[in-house]
Specification:
Strand order of the largest sheet of chain B: 2-1-3-4-13-12-11-8-9
Oligomer: heterodimer
Largest sheet of chain B: 9 strands, mixed
Number of domains of chain B: 1
Order of helices and strands of chain B: EHEHEHHEHEEEEEEEEEH
CATH class of chain B: Alpha Beta
CATH architecture of chain B: 3-Layer(aba) Sandwich
Strand content of chain A: 15-25%
CATH superfamily of chain B: Class I glutamine amidotransferase (GATase) domain
Structural class of chain B: alpha/beta
Radius of gyration of chain B: 15 Å
């Protein structure tokens, strides 16, 4: 059976890793290529690069980062952030990315998911959903623009729609849990996972190995993503995996 | 030199870098002479079966691949590239494949998640030079269609995803891997290295 995946996420701006990274033994902790290779060696099952560059130059730099990373690592990686056309996708895939994450652009132009899936296959298209609980609705709402803009769209409906359009995977971030280190949003993750037939990567809130166990069991997630705790070495991938193995979770 | 066939589809860069890391010269090419002159050929592939087959046929590369296989040159199909080696696929309608190996690609059907995406464990079905120095380990799969060979003797390894799923096939010096060896950590690199060792002596020390 499939192993549950542990996925570190790197925020990259203009070719540099942001959100301070606290690694010793690295020549340059801001170099995304070197950090990616380190995570590969440490047992990460996959990587996500989130390009938060705002400029055209920054995006061009990202292509080069992708190209170099693809030559260095032996695990798959997803690139997301600011991708708004099939041509953008093609450039990144040609440079060596395995999957493309789309968020705001998919909400604005759902056919982008359809076109991307038709052109490159569903397995290349990851729809990233930033969701926040909406008290009035009693369920979760989709936010775009890095969580700054509410959309009036229900997260569960969007998740199902994304699957219909051809998304191969969902990267689900709970804005309520993100940054808390109190654990993943199990209710949201389980609700989305139950609603779709494609894999769900849970993101936001990881603080301990137990949190990963919870999201893989009660949360029904296929993969767990984290950034800060791995970057700051609060938790190593080996620790998380060791704990999960002990608990009987299938882990590479 | 290892020729990595460029037919406008897929992630060629990762494959070629992996080959280079293993000490071989890799050339991403669509030139028939280079492909037929190579020590080994890799047919990669990401995308849709029909599109890929159309590209291969229209460019004449389909015949070049068949010719390379017939000549006994080591040939490795990766992911969609493995599926293309077979007779046909039902992906988005019926499509003819290269027909180098007997069988067909079928969509996963059942109450489980598709694509089959992630790390899954290999189970060897028979001995193969590809498994030299290797234990059954995890490799990275991403696919919505899987191959049913007509002839079980080509089945070298399977993985378990609600059924035995064809993971590695081979006959003579033609091989296919449904997963991505270039994305499968140490196990994948070892499989790739074992394929390359069938291509002759490394040109670089």
């Amino acid at each position: 059976m499939l192993a549950k995946r542990i996925i570190p996420c790197l925020d990259v701006k203009d070719g540099r890793v942001v959100k301070g990274v606290n690694f010793v033994n690295l020549r340059d902790a801001g170099d995304p290529v070197e950090l990616a290779a380190l995570y590969d060696r440490e047992g990460a099952d996959e990587l996500v690069f989130l390009d938060i560059s705002a400029s055209v130059e920054g995006r061009a730099t990202m292509i080069e980062v992708v190209r170099q990373t693809a030559g260095e690592i032996t695990i798959p990686f997803t690139v997301g952030g600011g991708i708004s056309s099939v041509d953008d996708m093609k450039r990144l895939l040609r440079a060596g990315a395995d999957k493309i994450g789309i968020n705001t652009a998919a909400v604005r132009e759902p056919n982008l998911v359809l076109d991307g899936a038709r052109k490159f296959g569903s397995q290349c298209i990851v729809v990233a959903i930033d969701a926040k609980y909406n008290e009035a609705w009693g369920e979760w709402e989709v936010y775009t623009h890095g969580g700054r803009r509410e959309t009036g769209i229900r997260a569960l409906e969007w998740a199902k729609r994304a699957e219909e359009l051809g998304a191969g995977e969902l990267l689900l971030t709970s804005m309520d849990a993100d940054g808390t280190k109190d654990g993943f949003d199990l209710k949201l993750t389980a609700a989305v996972s139950d609603a779709v037939g494609i894999p769900v990567i849970a993101s936001g809130g990881a603080g301990t190995p137990e949190h990963f166990y919870d999201v893989f069991t009660a949360g029904k997630a296929d993969a767990g993503l984290a950034a800060t705790i791995f970057h700051y070495k609060e938790l190593s991938i080996a620790e998380v995996k060791g704990y999960l193995k002990e608990k009987g979770v299938d882990i590479r | 030199m290892i020729a990595i066939i460029d037919y406008g589809m897929g992630n060629l860069h990762s494959v070629s870098k992996a080959v280079e890391r293993l000490g071989w010269e890799a050339e991403v090419t669509s030139d028939p002479a280079h492909i037929l002159g190579a020590d080994g050929v890799i047919l990669p592939g990401v995308g849709a079966f029909g599109d890929a087959m159309r590209e291969l046929s229209e460019s004449g590369l389909a015949d070049v691949v068949r010719q390379a296989a017939a000549s006994g040159k080591p040939l490795l199909g990766i992911c969609l590239g493995m599926q293309l080696l077979f007779g046909e696929s039902e992906e988005h309608g019926q499509h003819e494949g290269l027909g180098i190996l007997p069988g067909r690609a079928m969509r996963f059907a059942g109450e489980y998640k598709v694509p089959h995406m992630g790390w899954n464990r290999l189970a060897f079905r028979q001995d193969s030079p590809l498994f030299e120095g290797l234990e059954e380990g995890y490799v990275y799969f991403v696919h919505s269609y899987h191959v049913k060979p007509d002839d079980e003797s080509v089945l070298l390894a399977v993985t378990d995803y609600y059924q035995p799923v064809t993971a590695i096939v081979g006959r003579g010096r033609v091989f296919g891997m449904q997963f991505h060896p270039e994305k499968s950590g140490d196990v994948g690199m070892r499989l790739l290295a074992n394929f390359l060792s069938l291509c002759g002596t490394k040109p670089q020390a």
